[in-house]
Amino acid sequence: MKPMQTLKKGNTVFIIGLLLVLQLGVYAQEDTTQVKLKSIPRSERTLSTIPDKAYFKSWLTDARDIAISPYRWNKGQWIAASAITVMAVAMYTQDAGIEKAVQKAQNPFLNEAAKYGFERLGSGFYSIPALGIMYGIGAITKNDKARYTSLKAFEAYLMGFVASQVLKQLTQRHRPYQDDPPNSKIWDGPFTLKFNSSFPSGHSTVAFAMASVIATAYSKTIWVPIMVYTFAGLTAASRVYQNDHWFSDVFVGSAIGFAIGRTIMNNHIKKLKVLPISHTGMGVMLIYQL
Description:
With 290 residues, the protein is mostly helical. It has helices at 3-23, 25-28, 53-68, 75-93, 95-104, 108-123, 127-141, 144-171, 202-217, 223-241, 247-266, and strands at residues 272-275, 285-288. The longest helix is centred in the middle third of the chain and has 28 residues, at 144-171. The N and C termini lie far apart (50 Å).
């Protein structure tokens, strides 16, 4: 095996492991999000339900917390990260076989569903207008949770899009249709003027970012998480079906999107705890968790 090929394969394993390590902390974080936004005192909200200065300022805070989340991990979170990393690497080794099997299972109905349905959910063609409708209905009915959720889902879409585009440029993985025969092990990044954009799947990233925001906000309404994660999963699957991505691309993209959405939602309420007795034995103790 040529040295350069060996180096590229080694970099591939490292990249997959690193990306999953960077996002996995959200899976194991304590969920401090309160889904009933109407019941939260306004003084305890960290963000507005309108696109004002506080809303846009929160983008910086959320982006920071997404980037530094690994520094907050405990031992259990690192163990979980290692397990997920192993899964990602295992999927990477099976990319070529999965691509062949999926392409043999093509049929006209699924082709149309993927092209005109699920692919457009991930591109924003359907999902962004849907968020606008959700916000409008919330404004008319004075439903703060609907307005807040649509704004944060839009933020998740943008952050997922930016994150996926940056990683695409750094990794420069070839898409399945670029080579004949398809080669899942060609990575040209990051020092190239080309734009090979297979890894990770941007559609999967933004679909799961938005889905995790909505599912978290409406976690008590059981059909909502089921519905949004189903649509996100079908969006990710359509990218493999259409031969635009390898399976590991959509797996990592979905995981990153989920992590982005959960981090955004976990930031929207101050982590304020009220204990009935202070250390002096009287009154209450207030603890603000940073």
